[in-house]
Request: fold
Amino acid sequence: MLIDNFNRTHDYLRISLTDACNFRCLYCMPSEQMKFMPAKQLMQVDEIETIARIFVDLGVKKIRLTGGEPLVRKDAKDIIEKICLLPVELTLTTNCVLVDEFIQVFKKAGIESVNVSLDTLIPEKFNKLTKRNLFEKVWSNIQLLIEEGFHVKVNMVVMKGVNDNEILDFIEWTKNQHVHVRFIEFMPFDKNQWNSSKVFSYQEILNLVETQYNFIKIKDKPNATAKKYKPLNHRGTFAVISTMSAPFCHNCNRMRLTADGKMKNCLFSKGEADILTALRNREDIVPIIKKCIGQKEKALGGQFDSDFHNIDINKIDNRSMIRIGG
Reply:
């Protein structure tokens, strides 16, 4: 088992397959002209399987495949087919553009839940946020996932003055469909133009929702990052991931592996452990993994606290979100 100095057991691994994406969302990617890693720098299929297997031997019970956009990787199918053979719950996060090409792959791999990134329900705003005219394709594929019986979580990064006026529209969506909306507070990463005035907080979200809807609190799962709620008489649910205003670091069980094989013990950690180079040098990566977990800070990578209004973005040392993996 992987237990840090604060007695937190780590059994959930997020593996980024690529830093490439077919969208150009500002809060995730620094610029349209961003250059992606060459293929040789990325973990290869067998390397991903080997590293994942070692993490499973160390107690990992859940693996999430992320990106960039994981499905743009040409061998994504091969990776899914390898990882699904491990004794873990397998899931992934996607922007949903290519999902129709992978439905049968997901089913065969035993994937039951899919997270979809979608920050607006307005096609024109979607084009502006992603710089891609693909809203109808994304919407169609979300409907396909629902029709095929997948548990669909929709991740909406809420940015004040950008899409906070759509929060109630997302809640209304849950009325007639089994869709589970998760509002995510806007977080600071390299060159994503974050500032505290753009954060629409957990409490602000609840205050807004209760102006139009009655809802009840749902019991959260152990190690949950999302605080879940059920609007009365709705088929779906909503939740808030309150990283900035009400962090959940006290029971964090997550680890991240970037597409180039660097281990991050926290989304905001400064340090990274080079797992891939060690593997390619035929070194034992278990001590490296354990050392990385032992260096995990108590909260938020040790870089800031929950008083997000006083964060100096220039002092945060981290990659862009797309370089880390969602």
